[in-house]
Specification:
One of its GO terms (molecular function) is phosphatidylglycerophosphatase activity. It contains seven helices and six strands; from the N terminus they run H-E-H-E-H-E-H-E-H-E-H-E-H. It is α/β, with parallel strands linked by helices.
Length: 267
């Protein structure tokens, strides 16, 4: 099997380039402490955050994004890192998003509206641990019909596989797999355009940056999976880079006055 692209080095280069040229792409459209605080009517909250970065409401009527697709990170967003353990409050939150009659991600009205996109589970077909993680997550979430995005090896071409990876350059992981994720939703009739997608995750350099590359919206889970819902009191799962991002985000926003970019047409 051909080796996957060296996305770690590529992601680092992209992050540095973005910070120098387009720092607004590094800032999320909405910040919440954890996935538990994700609003069901996410479009309305994105509209409120957008109104502060664009024209004043009295000059331009407020538009509300019509969000139809939810992209979820796994590590430190849904699960403690390197596990497939979804704490019960997080699982309950997923259930509400999939069963609430008013949710845009209701399983009956939008069965393919939620997709887990991870740089571990499903991201390396040549790493059995990541293959097993994707399968385990899908088994746990089968009753909610939540799939895990699979990255294919670069040598793989042709039609999509059973996991439904969209067309495009194979072997791309976050933040480069945005076009493939968009294709996944388009193939299933979930979306027509990128601004109907919101990406939720704990990392600015992967999740938020991928949303910017996609032309979609981003939600940053700043605290990740908190210790209060795990069996390890006092545990902070944020790694070194995640903590650096917290400082960097504050610097860009408060010291530099940088505003989060918005999808095309929402300026």
């Amino acid at each position: 099997m051909a080796p996957l692209l060296n996305t770690n080095l590529q992601a680092f280069n992209l992050t540095v380039s973005t910070l120098l040229k387009q720092p607004s792409h590094f800032l999320p459209n909405l910040t919440i402490p954890t996935f538990l605080e994700l609003p069901e009517q996410i479009g309305q909250h994105l509209a409120s955050s957008t109104s502060s970065t664009t024209s004043p409401p009295e000059q331009k009527p407020q538009r509300i994004p019509q969000i139809k697709a939810l992209v979820l990170d796994k590590d430190n967003t849904l699960c403690p890192p390197h596990t497939t353990t979804i704490p019960k409050p997080y699982l309950d939150k997923l259930e509400r998003l999939r069963t609430s009659p008013t949710s845009p991600f209701n399983i009956n009205t939008n069965p393919d509206g939620v997709l887990i996109v991870s740089n571990t589970a499903g991201s390396r077909p040549d790493v059995q641990k990541y293959v097993d993680e994707a399968r385990t997550l899908e088994e746990k979430l089968a009753y909610l019909r939540i799939r895990v995005f699979r990255v294919q090896a670069p040598a793989t071409t042709g039609s999509t596989d059973g996991a439904g990876v969209g067309a495009g350059v194979k072997g791309r992981r976050k933040p480069f797999c945005g076009p493939d994720v968009l294709a996944w939703f388009r193939e299933r009739g979930v979306i027509n355009q990128p601004d109907e997608v919101v990406v939720v995750g704990d990392r600015l350099g992967t999740d938020t940056l991928m949303a910017a590359q996609m032309g979609s919206w981003s939600v940053w889970c700043k605290d990740g999976v908190t210790h209060s819902v795990t069996d390890q009191p006092g545990m902070d799962y944020r790694g070194f880079l995640a903590k650096v991002e917290i400082v960097l985000e504050r610097y860009l926003r408060e010291s530099r006055g940088v505003k989060a970019r918005v999808p095309n047409g929402w300026e």
